[in-house]
Amino acid sequence: MKFLADRSLGRLSRWLRILGCDTAYWRAGADRAFLRAAEREGRVALTRRKDVLARQHPGVVLFVESDRVEDQIAEVLRTLNVKPDPGAFFTICLECNVTLGSVSKEDARSRVPDYVYQTQQEFRICPACRRVYWPGTHRARAMETLRRILKLDADGAKGRNGSEGKRVRGRGCPTFLPSNPLAFCFFRLRSLEGRP
Ligand SMILES: [Zn+2]
User: Fold this and answer.
1) Interval between CA 132 and ligand 1 midpoint (Å)
2) CA 159 – ligand 1 centroid, Å
3) Beta strand pairing status for 123-125 and 132-133?
4) Three-class SS of residue 82?
5) Which of 65-74, 98-107, 156-165, 177-186 is predicted least confidently?
6) Contact 97, 25 (CB under 8 A)
7) What stretches of 84-167 adopt beta strand conformation (E)?
8) pLDDT for 37
9) Mean of pLDDT values over 116-135
10) How confident is the model at residue 167 (pLDDT cuts 50, 70, 90)?
11) 152 lies in some domain
12) Is position 32 within any domain?
């Protein structure tokens, strides 16, 4: 399952990428072009604008109710029945939504701080923006957050007002079962901060 998040859901889109979900980010207004792009690319449209739900659209649109990003992640996973594969976590560039590739330690050297080069052995690189990722200490914090969120979902938490039927429009979605041979847990905190 692929997503297209509108510009009010920038942080959510980055977290979905951490989970290994192909999530494009729409920087313009959530208008007809937004839905056309979702349809063209076969993506579930994620929005916080209720008027988007009223528009004609042959695909799936989810109105995200939650304000906090942690709640938004749980909401998307629960409502669309997405089952994240831990093997796919940290395999996508948080900036570009592109699958990370291999890079040797030597080739990564000029792109990472000295202390990272000295202390880390494995690196991955984004083929689009050339950012280098490595398994930093911040990954544990992200994993802690994900475990908390996924546990919430596993416990069968319900939507706050049971309005999923009104928030989702479109046909049923298949269960999400990604299989990514490049699965590699990398995380760089700086990539999570800053702009949405
Ligand atoms: Zn990138």
Assistant:
1) 9
2) 34
3) antiparallel
4) strand
5) 177-186
6) yes
7) 101-103, 123-125, 132-133
8) 95
9) 93
10) low
11) yes
12) yes
Distance 16 CA to ligand 1 centre (A): 15
Centre of ligand 1 to C-alpha 133, Å, is 10
* Ligand 1 center from residue 191 Cα (angstroms): 10
Question: 75 C-alpha vs ligand 1 centroid, how far in Å?
Answer: 26
CA 23 to mean position of chain CA atoms: 5
Which residues does 74 contact at the CB level (< 8 Å), separation at least 6? 66, 149, 152, 153, 157
CA of 120 to the centre of ligand 1 (A): 20
Å from CA of 131 to ligand 1 middle: 6
Q: Could you tell me the distance, in angstroms and rounded to a whole number, from the CA of residue 134 to the centre of ligand 1?
A: 14
3-state secondary structure of 34: helix
Q: Domain of residue 79: give its range.
A: 2-92+137-174
Tell me, what amino acid is at 171? R
Alpha carbon of 56 to ligand 1 centroid (Å) = 33
The residue among 164 and 189 whose pLDDT is bigger is 164
Residue 192: its pLDDT value, please?
A: 45
Placement of tokens 């979702």 in the chain: 38
Residue 191's DSSP bridge partners are none
How many structural domains does the chain have?
1
pLDDT on residue 33: 92
Ligand 1 centroid to residue 67 C-alpha, Å? 27
What's this model's pTM, rounded to 2 decimal places?
Answer: 0.77
In a domain, 191, yes or no: no
Distance 92 CA to ligand 1 centre (A): 8
Specify if 192 maps to a domain. Answer: no
